[in-house]
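Q: what does this look like with magnesium ion bound?
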Amino acid sequence: MGRIQAGAIPRQQKGHWRPLNHSFSDKRIQRHINPIERPRIVSASSQSVHSAPSSANSAETKSVDFIRTIINEHMRTDAYAGRVATRFPPEPNGYLHIGHAKSICLNFGIANDYSGACHLRMDDTDPTKESMEYVESIKQDVKWLGFDWGDNMFYASDYFEQLYDYAVKLIQLGKAYVCSLNEQEIREYRGTVTEPGKDSPYRNRSVEENLDLFRRMRAGEFPDGAHVVRAKIDMASPNMKMRDPLIYRIRHAHHYRTGDKWCIYPLYDFAHCLSDSIERITHSICTLEFENNRELYDWILDTLEVEKPRPHQYEFARLSLNYTVMSKRKLLYLVEKKLVSGWDDPRLPTISGMRRRGVTPEALRKFCESIGIAKANSSVDMAQLEFAIRDDLNQRVPRVLAVLRPLKVIIENYPEGRTEDLDAPLYPHDVPKEGSRLLPFSREIYIEQDDFMENPPKDYYRLSPGAEVRLRHAYVIRCDKVVKNDAGEVTELYCHYFPETKSGEGGEERKVKGTIHWVSAAHAVPAEIRLYDRLFVDEFPEDVDQSLNPNSLVVLKDGFVEASLASAEPGSRYQFERLGYFCADSVDSKPGSLVFNRIVTLRDSWAKKAAPEKAAPVKKESQPKEKKASSAPAPAKAPVMELTPAQEERFKRYQETMGLPADNARMIASDEALANFFETALSSHASPKSLSNWVVNELQRVLKDANIAALPFGPEAFASLVAMVDDEVISGKIAKDVFEEMLSTGADPKQIVDEKGLKQITDPSQLAPIVTKVLAANPDNVTLYKEGRNNVLGFLVGQVLKETGGKASPKLINELVVQQLNS
Ligand code: ATP
Ligand code: MG
């Protein structure tokens, strides 16, 4: 594929033609004129193996992930009579995001590969947060991604009767009982990782009594929380999930599908495996945090002796992307607090947001393929997603001209009233598509403000007084006169054009150093342009409110697009040459009042921003212009949930005396068990803010259905983990791994850190040799960097980080890498 080699360089063009967001000050960069760059993708993160699928449709040898390897083995041994059935089981309590896309591509992809089926199942067993709106959005997103569930659309809520019967059966088998301890007591009885739990005093209720109570629970005789049904397994099991887990609870709540028919609802661990069995799923694929639940999954199905061969659960690493958030709770918070315009805000990682922004389903699928399926959690760089988007758009969209921040140019020697229709190709030569449009040229045009400098540095190759540039697809012009307003700002340029330099008619012979884009003033169409940036400034946002990027949306109201876009259909995509890929907004854009979203820039502009680069004089000029832009609408401060007076008191105390951010304070205050945990933790580590962040961001995530008492560690251990982060003993990233380990083994965090040698490297002298080693091992990338490809920096930093096992701060690594590269 030659597209990467040639990029968008027009064949006849001699001048430099490159994206705007490029530093022109650095000589090294000027040799590099390829706007399309391919970041090296580190495939080591995916533990895929190479082998030929034995029974997959495709005969070709391709990379097989560990799940497909297992399936291949099942095919070979005929474990499921050649059948493969997977499922994608979202809870309809929010819109899908790109993490779900990974799971969708995996589950539906497997079904496609093995001519099996993938079921779309609404995992709707929690009546309080679910709705039909979410169900519809989920269906739309899965379809848009290009997958089809055929007749296999299911709802866990359709199984409520069957699940009830299964619970009755467990009770009859003496394997479940009605427990009347309250939440707090259940937690106390559960023990800790180091101590076994105690049997509930209700554990030996007779089968008759249990059946009677369960029937009356269903009949609505008891209030919420009065009783629960628990599986009778082993209160001393090393796996906390096996210590008599809850399987049913009372919830007097209206369900969006079953209405008020039920006031008891099954918990995830009970409903999920049985739904899989009812649907005769073969491979039940979920994310790693469910690893400990697998034993329970197996226990329930085996104890109930469901039909064989029964489904089995497999876990893979969830997708996490930097500079964004993927928890539905956080996304909902952003939407409810109106910090974004809705679930489809183009800055969100939701599928609907990315669709609206202009990302194609093909790009998302390719991205999901490129990241692989791993067994260990890691985070993927946003640059990798952007690369997949660019790579896809490069092959499919027409190139057109638009000016975002116009500066009027009058071509004095061009006859007044004359218009020339230039025949301009829509695609570069390396894109296998044909077509051209007529591009009107006339005496008055607009160019980009950034493409003119009155006092340029010597290596500035765009327009300046006396200098010549080529207008894309048109003529060479020279700037003769600069007009300014009273404030000293440049308002107009008077230029001279050279008729013999017309593009496409041999006029390219004339040597100029730069080529710039333009539109004809009389013909251009006004357009609003929305430029997006990362939603968060922190790589791994902890506190959503505090990490928001104030410049994540910049709206330019004075832009112009070339005449051929006058009737651009909502949703149509283009490359605005030198500016990026754009999409006519599917909600707000109409012919006559055009609105374009920037999908992605032409190159990774972030790798550069992150790196301390040599000063770019051009920037000084372009910076203040941002001010003209209006940024995102001011966030509305609306409360999210109602609090009881006691919770309200806590909420105030957390905010006022501890200084917690409002969303953290509210979240913790609204949940008594969580609040107790938090306050106990505080007595071991008096840092309310960081503790609250950990409670809200990490703990909450694993506590969805589970009771806090089920945690294999107590608040003290939790506090000691957070303290290590605060004291910079370990990095935040490592801390998350330690946390996962605590969840699965219950081990003490200090012990984990000691045993595994996870202490953070903060000493530059310790880090420098590792940097040297990595640079020596990657000579190609070092050369690329020296040629101006700043975006290899991210790769190199990532390699060093990997080499240290994630133990050093990326910031420090970045500094050292840049230092050594420039030395
Ligand atoms: P929450 O964000 O509240 O934790 P969830 O993302 O787990 O919720 P579900 O609706 O339960 O929401 O997810 C449906 C499926 O998508 C599950 O099988 C889950 O494992 C998978 N999934 C969710 N997030 C990711 C992710 N980031 N990467 C890969 N798969 C994911
Ligand atoms: Mg889930």
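The pocket of adenosine-5'-triphosphate (ligand 1) is lined by residues 89-91, 99-100, 102-103, 123, 286-287, 318-319, 326-329, 701 (CB under 6 Å). The first strand starts at residue 49 and ends at 50.
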